[in-house]
Fold Molybdopterin synthase sulfur carrier subunit.
Amino acid sequence: MTSPSLSASPVTVVVRYFASARAAAGTEEEKVELAAGATVTDAVQALRELHPGQLSRVLDAASFLVNEVAVRDRGRALGDGSHLDVLPPFAGG
């Protein structure tokens, strides 16, 4: 039997913002440190706290990619060095 680590290291996630998410966050990309075992939901909450205001509205409607794969389960854990892309709804024609 193995015992869990008493002090798991935090993970650093690279967040990339696109279109209106970039404008709302005021940056194209940033690194966010999260607790070990953090999920996409945890990351989104951290982004709301880092950028109160308009980004919160964008996050409500956004979809996300983790390491360029669409997120279907926001309970998915993020590993150290993961990329989280914030994609607001796009109009097209």
